[in-house]
Design a protein that fits this description.
There is one protein chain. The chain is built from four helices and five strands; from the N terminus they run βαβαβαββα. The protein is an alpha/beta fold. Strands 1-3-2-4-5 form a five-stranded mixed β-sheet, with helices on one face. This is Thioredoxin.
């Protein structure tokens, strides 16, 4: 996996403290839909490297982080900018939907 995996502590540092525009994929290894969505996100990662942050949280290993964000189901892709939640995409999503959300979050940074 090419995405940096976060835990509760690194999530705080990378998402809230750094203020970088980013997305965080909440996924589970045994999830069939996740196995389709995560590779799409990984592919986009190389396209936006240096401009937009891409992170991964395994919900089985970081259950408390997942629960603290009141998330239900996987996959969930959460978007942040300047440490502020900007919205999410859930379930089976297309590459275009993810790119639209990335573009929205990059607009002010261009």
């Amino acid at each position: 996996m090419s995405l940096l995996q976060l835990n509760s502590k690194s999530f705080e540092e990378k998402v809230y403290d750094s203020g970088e525009a980013c997305l965080v994929v909440f996924s589970r290894k045994s999830c069939h839909v996740c196995k389709e969505v995560v590779p799409i996100v990984e592919e986009l990662h190389s396209k936006y490297e240096g401009k937009f942050g891409f992170y991964y949280v395994d919900v089985e290993e970081n259950k408390s982080l997942y629960q603290s964000l009141s998330l239900k189901g996987v996959p969930q892709i959460l978007f942040f900018k300047e440490g502020i939640y900007q919205g999410k995409l859930s379930g089976q999503v297309e590459e275009e939907e993810i790119e639209e959300k990335i573009a929205e979050n990059l607009e002010d940074n261009l």
